[in-house]
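Task: sequence in, structure out. Protein: Peptidase membrane zinc metallopeptidase.
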Amino acid sequence: MFPFFFDPTMIVILPALLIAVYAQYKVKNTFKKYNQINLNSNLTGAEAARKILLSNNLSNIEIRQTDGKLSDHYDPEKKTLNLSADVYHNNSVAAVGVAAHEVGHAIQDKENYKPLSLRASLVPAANIGSSLGLPLAIFGFFIRADFLIMTGFVLFSAAFLFHLVTLPVEFNASNRAISNLKNSNLLNQEELKGVKKVLKAAAFTYVATTLVALANMLRILLLAGLGDD
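Result:
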């Protein structure tokens, strides 16, 4: 039996955690780099977002400034586009790229993009699963209760499914952003290349988060196996 508070399956999660740390480093540095390159048009993130929204007949979407850094998101319930200060006010390649990406989510909402609605429906279960699933499984391992381990697995499955569904949602929003920026001629070719790099770095963070969730799923299964020893 392993010493109390020692989780022998931590080795499984370490590679995924390292990838996640690198992904965060990559997105922050990529955003920082392209946030220092201003557009020739001098459009801010909020202004570019409004132009793309209008071109897609989404004049009902309110654009708001939100607190935090890289906290940008679209709220499908309130129909608001929430942009951080760095994105809302700046006229940089990075700011416009991020703003356009969030508009991509608004367009998904308008077109009833199924993965977006599926992700939204998974939020309550995913919140419960991500907060309780793994701790419950680890607790079950220490007290040798297979039922608790498998309950933790089932709960955490919802969190993993949420991350899995997030991938097509985010990739699709980025593709819509690039397509709209290209078709609207808001950026020149070099600026568009910069946007692609920013959005590619952001996409990597979602892949990394999904890998961490997958590794934790594997950890719970390993705990179940070790608990039988």
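The chain has seven helices and three strands.
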